[in-house]
Amino acid sequence: xxRLIWLILVTLPLLTNAxxxxxxxxxxxxxxxxxxxxxxxxxxxxxxxxxxxxFVPSPWExxxxxxxxxxxWYRITVDLRNVNDKNLYLVLGYxxxxxxxxxNGQLIGFSGSFPPDxxxxxxxxxxxxxxxxxxxxxxxxxxxxxxxxxxxxxGIIKGDVGIYSNKEIPxxxxxxxxxxxxREGDSDAWARIDYEDDxxxxxxxxxxxxxxxxxxxxxxxxxxxxxxxxxxxxSEENLLLVMGRIDDFDETYLNxxxxxxxxxxxxxxxxxxxxxxxxxxxxxNIVRPGQPNVIAVRVSDIGGDAGIYKGPxxxxxxxxxxxxxxxxx
Length: 329
Known about the structure:
This protein is mainly β. It folds into 2 domains: 2-165, Galactose-binding domain-like (Jelly Rolls, Sandwich), CATH 2.60.120; 174-328, Jelly Rolls (Sandwich). The chain has helices at 2-15, 231-234, 321-328, and strands at residues 22-26, 29-35, 52-56, 70-79, 88-96, 98-103, 106-111, 125-129, 140-149, 155-158, 162-165, 174-175, 178-184, 201-205, 219-228, 239-247, 249-254, 257-262, 277-281, 292-301, 307-317. The strands form 4 sheets. Strands 3-2-4-9-6-7 form a 6-stranded antiparallel β-sheet, with no helix packed on it. A 6-stranded antiparallel β-sheet has the order 14-13-15-20-17-18, with no helix packed on it. Strands 1, 5, 8, 10 and 11 form a 5-stranded antiparallel β-sheet that branches. The protein is globular, with a radius of gyration of 20 Å.
């Protein structure tokens, strides 16, 4: 029974839609589209004038590409000069099977795994946080999406496609959703701020390990993310690191210093740690204002699915925590 409840909890993020958000840009309509695969197609400078046009959302089979399975790309240019909202998310609905999403040439999200380690994410609702530093608030922004499909329908098949904001999230918060570094195994050295993690894989957070075709692995893995904490953030009251929900146990470090852990392992291995929202105080004396700061998280799993599987994930002033929690419920 406990595992049934757990499965319901971890499935909820996949079933949620954009109803709790405000759409600020409607992206339903005709996008540029091309069969094939070329990394240059993610560049905002690439000339896509000769590409086909295809309606989004709709299976590409319904748009003149019946029977096609394989790689294809979508592109669209969006002017955000009149969008003043903060905390923006790109919502793409459901994509069959695998996707990588770029904004102005930078990867902001992906679901599933491309060949040769293919893993479908056809039933995952795509909602990707857009880092503020990647947005051109003075003009055009290029969204490029790489898609791989195997059988049946392919492409951006359904959903309320658009750019959304959540005004309930306090402007003082610093979102940690998106791409993190990930590595299986265990080493104390991986907590260090000076450790080189360029060779690590990328994983979307929040998500389960199986998003990297890591299903049903028992053991330990590490996450790392480099961020900048500004002097303005430090002028606020005490800061909290909110790490969402993690299956099963974690030790969380900032700049090599352990700032919190959750582990309630009980007899016979049973635990409810996966239910607990992680909130850890950030000691200001270990923060490097305006410089790279490294969050490193050791995650240990005792069976079934695993990982940092559900938000919220952010740095927030202590007095704003309740507002963050209301925004995601």
